[in-house]
From TrEMBL:
InterPro entries: ATPase_NBD, ROK. It comes from the Bacteria. Belongs to the ROK (NagC/XylR) family. This is ROK family protein.
Length: 311
């Protein structure tokens, strides 16, 4: 029997999955400590994965191969992190083969985290019926990955399809961490949500003032009774819709799959974006399917396990 590890490293949590040739055995969540740097979190991952192996009466050296989802630009051929955006900057130059061999005696496949989520949904989730799709991860920031003609899009520099969060929706907009202006991520994401809300002229009268933390989940909850929450929610939905339409025009997608905790509000998000896409996207061939993920926040780890089994 062969065993596989799938690892999805996020800014606040790490997901680790263990499978054999036939089935998923277990997925565990571990807290990430982004502020302590990349090397520290890699040690946490080894400890947690070794613990999972022993709980399942497997030696860590029984692991055949590992799929690893990393939050940054990745050259999957050379197994290198190309660039990060203020997250785990010390991962550039890391020797992934050495790490996998030393700790597990295993081979490793490294990929960008949105691409791994895309592989998860495409092969095992809502994307199964499609050959051309885009997966959008709405987390702290916004990640995207694309399948075109039944192939994962990578491009010459391994960034094709990955920078959907940095499509500009406002040329004169907010400065983004990437250096561009008016990126989707800089205009409508968790990173800027607090600013969006507090800039609203009626903010002082809003119920949001009393909240310790403003998240999209509580923004969506309050929107039915609170003008500021409703305005900011609709502004974000309009920005995401504009971005989705640009992705469809760029990648000729037949399906758009949205991933993330925010999809708790899919009953509002999906019909809103669908209506805008039906009205404004140029798709003479027919209608684009606007879907929420089947695997949701496990899409990345399932994608990583899928790729581990392909090595
Ligand atoms: Zn940007």
């Amino acid at each position: 029997m062969s065993y596989y590890l799938g690892i999805d490293l996020g800014g606040t949590r790490i997901k680790i999955g263990l499978s054999d040739d036939y089935q998923l055995i277990e997925i565990q969540n571990v807290k990430a400590s982004r502020e302590k740097g990349f090397q520290y979190n890699m040690k946490i991952i080894v400890e947690a994965a070794v613990g999972m192996c022993s709980e399942n009466e497997i030696s860590q050296y029984d692991i055949n191969s590992i799929g690893f989802a990393f939050p940054g630009l990745v050259n999957s051929k050379a197994k290198k992190v190309i660039a990060t955006n203020a997250k785990y900057n010390d991962a550039v130059g890391f020797d992934w083969d050495k790490w996998a061999k030393e700790n597990f005696g295993a081979a490793i496949y490294l990929e960008n985290d949105a691409r791994m989520a895309c592989i998860g949904e495409w092969r095992h989730g809502a994307g199964v019926p499609y050959t051309d799709l885009i997966v959008i991860t709405l987390g702290t920031g916004i990640g995207t990955a694309v399948v075109m003609d039944n192939k994962l899009l990578k491009g010459k520099h391994f960034q094709a399809g990955n920078l959907g969060g940095h499509f500009s929706v406002n040329y004169d907009g907010r400065l983004c961490t990437c250096g561009n202006r008016g990126c989707v991520e800089a205009e409508a994401s968790t990173v800027v949500l607090k600013q969006l809300v507090s800039n609203h002229p009626d903010f002082s009268t809003s119920k949001l003032v009393n909240l310790e933390e403003i998240s999209f989940n509580n923004l969506f909850e309050l929107a039915d009774h609170d003008k500021v929450a409703l305005d900011v929610r609709n502004q974000c939905l309009d920005i995401w819709s504009a971005a989705v339409i640009s992705y469809i025009h760029a990648f000729d997608s037949e399906a758009v799959i949205l991933v993330g905790g925010i999809m708790n509000s899919k009953d509002v998000i999906l019909p809103y974006i669908e209506e805008k896409v039906n009205e404004l996207a140029w798709t003479p061939w027919g209608k684009v399917a606007i879907l929420s993920a089947d695997l949701n926040d496990s899409a990345g780890v399932i994608g990583a396990l899928h790729m581990a089994q392909k090595i």
